[in-house]
Amino acid sequence: MKKISAVALLLGSFCFGQQNAEIEKPVRNLFSGMKNADAELLKSVFSDTAILQTIAGDGVKTESIDDFIHSVSKTEKEALDERITIEAIHKDGNLASVFTPYTFYFRGKFSHCGANSFQLVKQRNGEWKIQYLIDTRRKDQCKEIK
């Protein structure tokens, strides 16, 4: 009985790890696309109706996904380096939430830090896409993420 329980636990951990890897993929591809100024990769991570927002000092600002991709694709490779730590992933059916503190570097120099909150949806083809992304930005009390 102990062997069966151990095997079930191992298989459950493997399956859960696989689910998380699939949920993390568009998040990690977003930052890879930013770092490489890769417009096609950036387009591939967002759903068709995605929303991008930032919490600023004077409220919440919404940015067009197309404008974001256009802006990022105009930078030189390696200029944008957002280093994240995935702190939490929650999933219920075709909805997932990912929380990632980050530090952001521009051309190798620290710019700001904060946290990203992602809402992802699983598409009909089984692929996870970013539906909603909101972040905070600050320059103080930052913990460097390697």
From TrEMBL:
InterPro entries: FrzH/put_lumazine-bd, NTF2-like_dom_sf. Keywords: Signal. Pfam families: Lumazine_bd_2. Residues 1-21 form the signal peptide. This is DUF4440 domain-containing protein. It comes from Chryseobacterium hagamense.
